[in-house]
Specification:
Oligomer: single chain
Radius of gyration: 30 Å
GO molecular function: ATP binding; carbohydrate binding; protein serine/threonine kinase activity
Structural class: alpha+beta
Main location: membrane
Organism: Thlaspi arvense (Field penny-cress)
Subcellular location: Cell membrane
CATH architecture of the largest domain: Orthogonal Bundle
CATH topology of the largest domain: Transferase(Phosphotransferase), domain 1
Keywords: ATP-binding, Cell membrane, Glycoprotein, Kinase, Lectin, Membrane, Nucleotide-binding, Receptor, Serine/threonine-protein kinase, Signal, Transferase, Transmembrane, Transmembrane helix
Length: about 675
């Protein structure tokens, strides 16, 4: 053989490249590549993302509130044009059937993008609340979203969306594909592999997105076809890849194969070469030389020992179970798990004590998820079925400014409510306990708008109307980024849109109760607005709605603010701890809006939709109407003191600390109308 032949040298070089790189990555052109599985693939991975031994790319696993990123290791040049084509195969395998952990996004972003600041949950590991929507993001994402987030304008919990610089899609469609002109729906969290094709043609400024089950030909008709000019989005050099996130519920998110091209249509993936999705394997109980009789004896022995241990510990972890609870099984935690997560409800894990019980910090050992567990006394004989049904419904609420209610547990005379843990505690601790550093005005104003957005969602945007009935600073918790999240749904009441609520018992906290509520006992969205008005004045003024140790004129916060407003010096009511460092326009707006929401007439109070319009500058707030008599227009008459047995509150009746936690309920939350 003539080894000096140039053609032979070329052949040997090609064979050597294929031997060194079985994925074919070494032979990729600068702006195109194909991965039929990801063994030895050159990818930049972070978060939970990893390549499994068989070449399967796993973006996230069943860990809660986690992110995974996988980007091609080399930047893609778009200097010669913006057109591109890509296809990939993915699979979403939920931890719990039919309940998933957010989704996957194919993303194109600048190479220097720092995703360490991105949030989990609905932000898909791409953005956070502060940078969502910024033009400087230069982000194009095709989202495969499995959670309905109304704050982003989502159409449902199973859709494909096109995102530009923000998580609110400019175009979206429920997941489906066209097979012989028939629209066939798909379920993203089915656990089955699916293929996505994304094509952008610069000459027509047109983005096409298709999806179909793996093994199906590329549909002729796109699921999404959207005219888009990407010239302001895509820079000369960009990175391409995938991002995924989980939330309170997690999913395994996999990519099986991926092809990308800047020079025409992406190469077709070879299905036979793609890795398989992991399956649960049955354990092999037999080993060489072990007789069947020995296995039976061993199993019986294990059962016997287990039975003895169970009998000894049964009382320690004994719970209350009834047949009707089966339908709420996914919302129920075992007492054993909660007991262990809180180290036996030790005082060292105590987060706080309120009018309805103690709250403990816990960590679910299996998932390392941090939780808050509230222990509430209850009478299991009355109202429990309805109460648990409402817990299950509230557990389906999804909003970035709500504390997620994860579920419940019942044991003897206790009800345990399980929430997401908020690391910065409750808002009132920073407002009233003067911890350093305190909250500046920008942080307070963001919290106000966040809580207002959450209340609008509860009142108008969810499938039912949710009355919170206990809005106050101590029930607003702060997450790691000091965003306000409305929590404690222990008093919440649900009813259908267009119906009338049937609450007839007064519940809530003194200082936040609308005057008509104290007379009729009937809670409405308007009584929630009244409590929100007290909440606004709390934040702006840095004091509680009632200060029984103050002068008679300063007993009610709303009266003090009203007097300042009458005198034309309303800004003097602002919290002195702010040192005058605030936006006068925003402070004046919040103080006046607090007065308007606290009006004694329900008809004069705005809806939460109007409140958000005022706060966002999308509408002008009407002038606050003053009562010429100067008494009784806002809140209630001082002489009547809310028409409660605690009437005429003063320093010689109750201490301020007692007033701050005083709560008016009937004998039990779970008796009658709660």
């Amino acid at each position: 053989m003539d080894t000096s032949s140039p053609s032979l040298h070329l052949l040997l070089l090609v064979l050597l490249c294929l031997r060194l790189d079985p994925t074919g990555a070494a032979a990729q052109q600068k702006n195109q590549f194909i991965f039929n599985g990801f063994k030895e693939a050159k990818l930049h991975l972070d978060g939970n993302a990893k390549i499994l031994p068989d070449g399967l790319l796993q973006l996230t696993n069943t860990s809660k509130h986690k992110i995974g990123h996988a980007f091609y290791s080399f930047p893609i040049s778009f200097s010669d044009g913006l057109s591109f084509s890509t296809t990939f195969v993915f699979a979403m395998v939920p931890e719990i059937e039919n309940i998933s952990g957010h989704g996957i996004a194919f993303a194109i972003s600048p190479p220097a993008t720092d995703f360490r600041t991105a949030n989990t949950n609905q932000y898909l590991g791409l953005l956070n609340a502060s940078d969502d929507g910024l033009s400087s993001n230069h982000l194009l994402a095709i989202e495969l979203d499995t959670i309905f987030n109304p704050e982003f304008g989502d159409i449902d919990d199973n859709h494909v969306g096109i995102d530009l610089n923000k998580l609110s899609s400019i175009a979206a469609a429920s997941v489906a594909y066209y097979d012989e002109r028939v629209n066939r729906s798909l379920k993203l969290i089915s656990g089955k592999p699916m293929q996505v094709w994304i094509d952008y043609r610069e000459v027509r400024n047109l983005m096409d997105v298709r999806i179909a089950p793996l093994g199906t030909q590329k549909p002729n008709r796109p699921l999404l076809s959207k005219p888009i000019n990407l010239s302001s989005i895509i820079l000369n050099s960009m990175q391409v890849g995938f991002s995924s996130s989980t939330g309170a519920i997690a999913s395994n998110h996999y990519i099986l194969g991926w092809s990308f091209s800047k020079t025409g249509e992406a190469q077709s993936l070879e299905i036979s070469k793609l890795p398989s999705i992991p399956k649960n394997r049955k354990r092999n109980w037999t080993t060489g030389g072990l007789s069947v009789s020995l296995i039976i004896v061993s199993v019986l022995l294990v059962f016997a020992v287990t039975g003895v241990v169970y009998s000894l510990r049964r009382k320690k972890y004994e719970e209350i179970h009834e047949d009707w609870e089966r339908q709420y099984g996914t919302h129920r935690f075992s007492y054993k798990d909660l007991y262990r997560s809180t180290n036996g409800f030790k005082e060292t894990e105590l987060l706080g004590v309120g009018g309805f019980g103690k709250v403990y910090k816990g960590i679910i050992r299996s998932s390392k998820q941090q939780i808050a567990v509230k222990k509430v006394s209850h009478d299991s004989k009355q109202g429990m079925k309805e109460f648990v049904a409402e817990i299950a419904s509230i557990g389906r609420l999804r909003h970035r400014n709500l504390v997620q209610l994860l579920g419940y547990c019942r044991r003897r005379g206790e009800l345990l409510l399980v929430y997401d843990f908020m690391p910065n505690g409750s808002l009132d601790k920073l407002l009233f306990k003067k911890q350093k550093p305190g909250l500046n005005w920008a942080q307070r104003f963001r919290i106000i708008k966040g809580v207002a957005s959450a209340l609008l969602y509860l009142h108008e945007e969810w499938e039912q109307v949710v009355l919170h009935r206990d809005i106050k600073a101590s029930n607003v918790l702060l997450d790691a980024d000091l965003n306000g999240r409305l929590g404690d749904f222990g008093l919440a009441r649900l009813y259908d849109h267009g119906a009338n609520p049937d609450t007839t018992h007064v519940v809530g906290t003194v200082g936040y109760l609308a005057p008509e509520l104290t007379r009729t006992g009937k809670a409405t969205t308007s009584t929630d607005v009244f409590a929100f008005g007290s909440f606004l004045l709390e934040i702006a003024c840095g004091r509680r709605p009632i200060e029984p140790r103050g002068t008679p004129e300063a007993l009610l916060l709303v009266d003090g603010v009203l007097e300042k407003w009458k005198s034309g010096v309303v800004l003097e009511a602002s919290d002195p701890n702010l040192g005058g460092e605030y936006s006068e326009e925003e402070m004046g707006l919040v103080l006046k809006l607090g007065l308007l929401c606290s009006h004694s007439s329900p008809a004069a109070r705005p809806s939460m939709r109007q409140v958000l319009q005022y706060l966002g500058g999308d509408a002008s707030m009407p002038e606050v109407m003053l009562d010429t008599a100067g008494e009784g227009s806002f809140g209630v008459d001082n002489k009547m003191c809310y028409e409660f047995p605690l009437s005429c509150l003063s320093s010689n009746v109750m201490s301020s600390s007692a007033i701050s936690v005083a709560t008016i309920t009937n004998e039990s939350l779970l008796k009658g109308g709660r």
